[in-house]
Amino acid sequence: MLLRLGDVEIWRILESVDPFMAPQDFFPDMGPDGLELMRREVPRQLCQTTGKMLLPIQGFLVKTPQHVILIDACIGNDKTCEFEELWHKRSDGRFLAGLRAAGVAPEDIDYVMCTHLHIDHVGWNTRLEDGRWVPTFPNARYIFPAADHEHFSSELGVTYQESVLPVIAANQAELVGPDHKLGDYLSLIPTPGHTPGHVAVEVTNAGKVAVVTGDVMHSPIQCLKPEWNFAYDNEPDLAAKSRRKFLEVACERQNLILGSHFPLPSHGKVAAKSGAFAWLED
Ligand SMILES: [Zn+2]
After folding, report:
1. 181-182/54-63 β-pairing
2. pLDDT at 20
3. Residue pLDDT, tens place only, 81-99
4. Which domains, from first to last, does the chain contain?
5. Which residues of the chain have pLDDT under 70?
6. CA of 6 to the centre of ligand 1 (A)
7. Residue 32: what pLDDT?
């Protein structure tokens, strides 16, 4: 188990940690001194052999007294990925083994909550069975941000077709607004910009708050530099605004941050520092 908030358990379900893009491409705003700052502040997010960003791909399993909820479904097996070879047509048991280690079988999941509808957050939504995509979690309701659904259904890209549409066809999807609450313990935090409907997810219990970032930020370096956008943030200005607000709230309330793509252990808090924030890893 990763951590416990009273009688709510949070487990990390890790799929992979691989190099992904050079830092200067990942954060085009970093400027000439940015790489040095990254080397100094978050050396563990830089691959020693390739120099690329090391990007964990992970979901978080939340067990509350009411529900078993999977937040984000990683890349999945057999999925088509045109831009990253390591993500294309994977065949790997680590994600499902992680669920088993948490004492959970696919049929035990009550909800799958996708922070947004990108390939590395929706993959295990479905699996290939006799040449057809079927929901991996047969008894789950899948919660998708409505604004992301509107955006990606109009594009009809391959990720939407492989990992989202089959869930809708199976009548297991719920499209929700950005302030949705899921049971008594989880609430969505609107953080648009990376995608139009992007949400972070707060888990609250026993006087504590843990918040899963999704892709409102990708690295602890963005605590110091909230203005650094990821190269593929859909609306960069909005993404930066959402990121700063997310950090301000996390700082003020002393939220525990679970960084979806942060180097392991991927959790910590933030403190105010020089007009931005310092990352205090647990
Ligand atoms: Zn991501």
Report:
1. unpaired
2. 95
3. 999 999 999 999 999 999 9
4. 3-281 (3.60.15.10)
5. none
6. 29
7. 83
What confidence score (pLDDT) does residue 246 get? 98
Determine the distance separating the centroid of ligand 1 and the alpha carbon of 120, expressed in angstroms.
5
Contact assessment for residue 176 and residue 188, using Cβ atoms and an 8 Å cutoff: yes
> How confident is the prediction for the chain on average, in pLDDT?
97
**pLDDT tens profile 208-223:** 999 999 999 999 999 9
The pLDDT assigned to 144 comes to 98
Q: Which phi and psi (to 5°) does residue 75 adopt?
A: -95, -40
Distance CA 24, CA 239 (A): 18
Helices (H), 22-181: 23-26, 31-41, 94-101, 119-122, 146-155, 158-163, 165-169
Contacts of 33 (CB under 8 A, 6+ apart): none
Contact, 30 vs 23, CB < 8 A? Answer: yes
Distance 218 CA to ligand 1 centre (A): 7
Rounded to the nearest whole angstrom, what is the distance from the C-alpha of residue 215 to the centroid of ligand 1?
5
Residues 167 and 202: their CA atoms lie apart, in Å, by: 24
Residue type, 241: K
| Token pair of 281 as six digits | 């890893």
Cα of 269 vs centre of ligand 1, distance in Å, is 20
How far does residue 264's CA lie from ligand 1's centre (Å)?
15
Give CA–CA dist 177/52, Å, rounded. 36
d(CA 207, ligand 1 centre) in Å: 29
Coil/strand/helix, residue 28: coil
Helix (H) or strand (E) holding 279: strand 276-281
DSSP letter assigned to residue 108:
G
Give the SS3 label for residue 41.
helix
Distance CA 113, CA 13 (A): 14
